[in-house]
């Protein structure tokens, strides 16, 4: 066995990335052994995190492709095994940075992840559609993005991302988010025994579920964590206000007055929890219709006008700082059909007017410079 061939095989294995954890299998101690004979025959044992790992075939194919392409390798014997309890516990400690206790990384003052809570005062304003499309637009902008479906009772993110039959992998009590189109996604809908199961939790159980989503899910290094909140100002908003003191809130509304009034309450609730409201998004703002008579496109205000501007103005006065109207997203049947098909409109057709508006919103959020102003630094003056 030549030293050069050993080094080449090790280097090739270091390019194999675990699809769920998004780190090289060599860094994760998944390569148990590498043996190379004098005639170039290679024998490798790879340890999967769990028995029946859903990404086993992907990892095996990647290892075979990388190693067999090396000059001097005459054959490859690849064994796919699984970690024992001690090895999984060691991996869990490594992923947590050597810590065993449950900790929410996004709550640290030095966290570089921008946590965006997408809120609304009432249901039916397209909050979840805005969430998944915004997340996809941030990915298209080159950002690392996680999506947390915190709408425990009305979870719709799995459907909108085509993940209804997907289940996260568990590693010693740690949950691996499900990868989808460049996103890392977690939702209670992925953990239910069946689609028909109804979630009816309150108080401590609900709080514990949110704690697990934030602390026990291995999110890795994210630029953005986009959280789909349930509508209104209930238990979830209160719980996340305590767990994510530095999160920022985007309020979604529609142009009609009834939606605008309750959207203002969602923004006010965020301020009460010392979270900053960074802006308002007016969804279903208008509909462009081609006129059969003149051939031109005319704007139809299906749900009235001014709701987004009103919410932004009211929150600016009420909270004492500028709360801008960040975007007006036009009505587009593709938003609904994309959610039904599991492919957000921004991904399937980025040229549509609604996609363009959401992409511009993502660019605004991506261009912001991180600031410590208004953040809870965890320091108590003496």
Q: What's the N-to-C terminus distance?
A: 65 Å
CATH homologous superfamily caption of the largest domain? P-loop containing nucleotide triphosphate hydrolases
Q: What is the H-and-E element order?
A: HEEHEHEHEHEEEEHEHEHEEEHEHHH
Taken from the alpha-carbon principal axes, the silhouette is elongated
Spatial order of the strands in the main sheet? 8-9-5-10-4-11-12-15
Query: What is the number of helices?
Result: 12
Extract low-pLDDT stretches: none
What proportion strand?
15-25%
Can you tell me the number of structural domains? 2
Arithmetic mean of pLDDT: 84
Number of strands: 15
Gyration radius, to the nearest Å? 24 Å
Return the structural class: alpha/beta
CATH architecture of the largest domain: 3-Layer(aba) Sandwich
Task: Please tell me about this protein's structure.
The chain is an alpha/beta fold and 382 residues long. The chain folds into two domains: 3-95, GMP Synthetase, Chain A, domain 3; 105-367, Rossmann fold (3-Layer(aba) Sandwich), CATH 3.40.50. It has helices at residues 3-13, 56-68, 85-95, 127-140, 157-160, 203-215, 235-243, 257-272, 307-319, 333-341, 345-348, 353-367; strands at 31-36, 41-48, 75-82, 114-119, 145-149, 169-171, 174-176, 178-180, 183-187, 224-228, 248-253, 276-283, 287-290, 297-300, 325-329. Strands 8-9-5-10-4-11-12-15 form an eight-stranded mixed sheet, sandwiched between helices. It has a three-stranded mixed sheet with strand order 1-2-3, covered by helices on one side. Helix 4 crosses helix 12 (353-367). The model has no long low-confidence stretch (mean pLDDT 84).
């Amino acid at each position: 066995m030549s030293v050069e061939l050993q080094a080449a095989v090790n280097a090739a294995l270091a390019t194999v990335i675990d699809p769920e954890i998004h780190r090289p299998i060599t860094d994760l101690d998944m390569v148990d052994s590498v043996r190379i004979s004098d005639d170039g025959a290679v024998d490798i044992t790879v340890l999967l995190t769990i028995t029946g790992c859903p990404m086993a075939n992907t990892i095996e194919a990647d290892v075979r492709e990388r190693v067999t392409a090396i000059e001097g390798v005459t054959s490859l014997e690849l064994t796919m095994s699984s970690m024992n309890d001690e090895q999984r516990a060691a991996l869990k400690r490594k992923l947590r940075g050597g810590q065993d206790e449950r900790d929410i990384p996004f709550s640290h003052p030095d966290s570089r992840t921008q946590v965006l809570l997408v809120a609304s005062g009432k249901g039916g304003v397209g909050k979840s559609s805005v969430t998944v499309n915004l997340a996809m637009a941030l990915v298209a902008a080159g950002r690392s993005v996680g999506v947390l479906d915190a709408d425990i009772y009305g979870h719709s993110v799995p459907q909108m991302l085509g993940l209804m039959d997907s289940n996260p992998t568990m590693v010693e009590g740690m949950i691996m988010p499900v990868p989808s189109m460049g996103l890392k996604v977690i939702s209670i809908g992925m953990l239910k025994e069946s689609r028909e199961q109804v979630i009816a939790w309150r108080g401590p159980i609900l709080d514990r579920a949110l704690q697990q989503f934030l602390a026990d899910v291995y999110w890795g290094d994210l630029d953005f964590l986009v959280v789909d909140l349930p509508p209104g100002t209930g238990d979830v908003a209160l719980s996340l206000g305590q767990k994510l003191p530095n999160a920022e809130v985007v309020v979604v509304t529609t142009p009609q007055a009834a939606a605008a009034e309750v959207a203002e309450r969602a923004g006010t609730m965020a301020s009460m929890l010392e979270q900053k409201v960074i802006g308002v998004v007016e969804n279903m703002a208008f509909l462009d219709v081609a006129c059969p008579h003149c051939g031109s496109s005319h704007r139809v205000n299906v749900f009235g006008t001014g709701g987004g501007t009103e919410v932004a103005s009211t929150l600016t006065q009420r909270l004492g700082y500028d709360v801008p109207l960040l975007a007006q997203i036009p009505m587009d049947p593709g938003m609904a059909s994309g959610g039904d098909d599991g492919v957000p409109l921004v991904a399937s057709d980025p040229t549509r007017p609604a996609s363009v508006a959401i992409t511009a919103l993502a660019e605004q959020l991506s261009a912001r410079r991180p600031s410590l102003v208004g953040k809870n630094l965890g320091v108590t003056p003496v």
